[in-house]
Automatic annotation (TrEMBL):
Main location (coarse class): membrane
Biological-process GO terms, alphabetical: transmembrane transport
Ranges where the ABC transmembrane type-1 domain occurs: 68-278
Pfam family, one: BPD_transp_1
Name recorded for this polypeptide: ABC transporter permease
Annotated keywords: Cell membrane, Membrane, Transmembrane, Transmembrane helix, Transport
GO cellular component: plasma membrane
Family, similarity comment: Belongs to the binding-protein-dependent transport system permease family.
Amino acid sequence: MKDSTRNFQGWLLFAPAAILLLAFTHYPTITTFIHSLYTNKSFIRPRRFSGIESYESMFSDPIFVKVFINNMWLALGTIPTSIGLAIIMALIVNKAIPGRGLLRMAYFTPTMLPMIAVANIWLFFYAPEIGLIDKTMAIFGFESTNWLGSPSTVLPSIMVMTVWKEAGFFMVFYLAGLQTISPELEEASKLEGSSRWNYFWRIQFPLLLPTTLFVLINAFLNSFKLVDHLFVLTKGGPDNASNLILYYIYETAFAFLDISYASALTIFLLALLALTALAQFLFIEKRVHYR
């Protein structure tokens, strides 16, 4: 009787989280997948089953291919840079230096700002002729550049803003990881005559690999969930040079009213992120956790 009561109480505690997970994750995923298998419904044309037609159209869509490549370049450009800067910042603020608390706050402040606010700040930086960047470069004799209006500079400009926003967030995890490393290891390394770089590369970095794995997966997921800043900065332009998958899904669903194709794009994105998480557990995690 006690066991059944305990099990019932356990299910009651589990029920709110399970209901929220089913209502806001699993149910929308299933309905989105079903929508992707049917054509769009209109007043004059009923919805009909189309199978994988939307998925076939997706891979033959040149805009989708361009958007996907943009997102991959964004991930490749921001993830290693953000992680590298996060490690450097964590190493700096982990030392007993004057003003360490203020420095930590300065590094973390961009993370606390909403993405819309960050986009407006950088919109002022990138404004041609009157922006902070162009004003500074004009002092050294450089000409004005339309950073967000040129296909060759718009995606790198967004990468810089993304790194500025996320590096401080990842720094917190590395700082926590550094503080779990015993100071005795550093003392032993000094007694052995190892350099600071050798101590970091041979001792600290291997011990931070679990943290790096966690940050890496989060950084990859974040790079495919960026959408807020595009509403303020570029609207995906010019000529889709800064368009990303999530913004393209929004455009397809709410601007072009193509719910079937937008559903197929959403399922593709979910599958991509799910495969990334699966790769973490099957291949990467075993290599970085010491057992």
